[in-house]
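RETRY 2/3 - previous attempt timed out on the joint model. Re-submitting the same 741-residue input unchanged.
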Amino acid sequence: MTGIVVVGGSLHTDPATPVDVRIRDGHVAEVGAGLAAGDDRVVDAAGCVLVPGLVDLRAHLREPGREEAETIRTGTTGAVLGGFTAVVAMPNTEPTLDSPSAVRDVAALAERALCEVVPAAALTVGRDGALLTPMGELTTMGVRIFTDANRSVADAALMRRIMEYATGLTEVAGGDPIVISHHCEEPALSAGGHMHEGEWSTRLGIRGAPREAETIMLGRDLALARKTGCRLHVPHVSAAESVAMIADAKAQGLPVTADVSVHHLCFVDADCAEYDPVFKVSPPLRTAADRAALLDGVITGVIDAITTDHAPHEPHTKEFPFDEAPSGVIGFETALAALVTQTELSLDRIVEALSVEPARIAGIGDRHGRPIVTGEPANCVVFDPTAEWTVDGSMMASRSHNTPWHDTVLRGRVRHTIVGGQLVVDGGVVRS
Amino acid sequence: MTDLLTIDQLGPDGIREVMACADAMAEVCSRPVPKVPALKGRTVASMFFEDSTRTRTSFETAARRLSADVLNFSASSSSVNKGESLRDTVETIEAMGVDAIVVRHRSSGAPQQIARWADAAVINAGDGWHAHPTQSLLDVYTIRAEGRSFEGLRIGIVGDISHSRVARSNIAAYLALGAEVTVVAPPTLLPPHVEALGASVSHDLDAVLAETDVLYLLRMQRERMDQALVPSLGEYHRAFGLTLDRAKSLSGSALIMHPGPMNRGVEISPEVIDDPRVRVLNQVTNGVIVRMAVLYLVLASTASDGVAS
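RETRY 2/3 succeeded.
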């Protein structure tokens, strides 16, 4: 079987030194200058850097149930075009991923995916915040992340039981604790809120969700994590205070990790000024000071990972009034370029937060987020850091077009994506 | 002017332009036959996604006095429930051939969205808690008609600022013209970052009454009680209602205004309603005049002139 030889690029860890990379049998076979092609397929990487394949800890692939917005096939097509080699699929599908059969169905659908799909399962049946899902059985099936997606478990006693129960599943999981990823939002306090409660919500006359809706729930979760020893993950942190709380918790040795979505690192509440629902997300975009604190959190490592929170919605649903439109944006194809263009994060830190750390948190660190050295699994991306392009929502592989980067010029584009040693994106195009 | 969406969009010069045009419209309205052919052959669609007999009637009267045809569209149910997007609805109406769309919507920002999609001129007849520019223009016209100058005029706006599009637009209009604006309400009826609106804030009506040239009362929505924003309408009336005693501490030359409809016994005591300083009916009359001016101005670029007598 012939392999691939990626020529003319360099590794992101040492961009000044040109190296070629040979990939065979799903692994990196050879790294060095001037590799002979032989029978291997030559992949041009001139002017590009090789980075480990990206891993998205939080993506809504919509299938089963809302195939008009996205399918696992279309979603993962966008994912590989954006350089993702693995995505964690959120369980807020129809039916909810709250049972072994539902998870098996998604695993079967994922055989048609273009990258690895890692199903996360729900914490509570139907994500209704009342009954535990069969977490033990789901763990034996390989589920490592449990989350009610964009809903919080309002009942603190139930959340305590979930966390306690989860701590008993470490052995079933093979030694690493399973991860409870919990959306932090005190539902009574944020009820009816469509954007960040602040100066802009006041001007625009839109009911806001206060930052305290996040910090109160985060405070509760951290207290319960302290009590139970549960391995807690805090997804899509949006408020500056939350970053400080997570920093404190980590300093005290709590087993906590956190992520922030790309859009919270690039946009703020003032971007809602034109009432374009494409800026409506949950949690809401907050202030410039929050954005700065989130970026700082990523730089210092308080925030471990960056996610897309890819949330496709059929085009017409973003043509409703702001307060009637659904929350969420798509993000696979723009994530890497948006971070390079619109944040001061170094490419090294981006790779850490968008590949290495999320792979570790998702329990797939044995095969994703690996350094590009001989013997490692070949999940990697050839990225052109200088290519400029104008985002066009309608040209996305996603079935949905709800991107806040529409019409924005971004710098940096994925040229090739290699998943499990296979070249799935070649020259910016998915190979059929 | 191609659309009228907010007061901010007009600025002081734009407000004065509307006032000047409204003066011409007032003259039209004073004629034995108060009708001119200025917008003959033009179609104005009134799209009310939220019920409002008063504003709708005012706009339709204004359109007819300018000889425009009026196309009526009502949709009280939300567009989501109908399965049709707002854009679909607007494009459907526009396809019937309309020159202007007067839109009232419960959702803040809906007129802005419609203006992006529609070729027709869009006039905001009130959106959510956000803006109600024609109300503010008629209020400015009413104060101006009394011969008051806005420079340094002390205006107190009392009531539910948080959920009020009238408050937001009126604060913007009065500040743009140089007035001093104080909003008076319990903290629960103020928006969380009220300072963003630019007005001074008081929680004590009695403390500001004597220093007020225009007292503007807002309608207290009864459903606010369900949200426990104030303990009771009675307590609200005692603290923020215009009672007979408070009317006495208000200057003899002060104006008392209200966008209507008034809740007797809540924001105003029944015995104050007939006070000679109350301008509520003038506001209604001026509403037609100002809306004629707005319709004329947004359609003026293609209208045949028939206003000047």
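The mean pLDDT of chain B is 93. Closing ticket.
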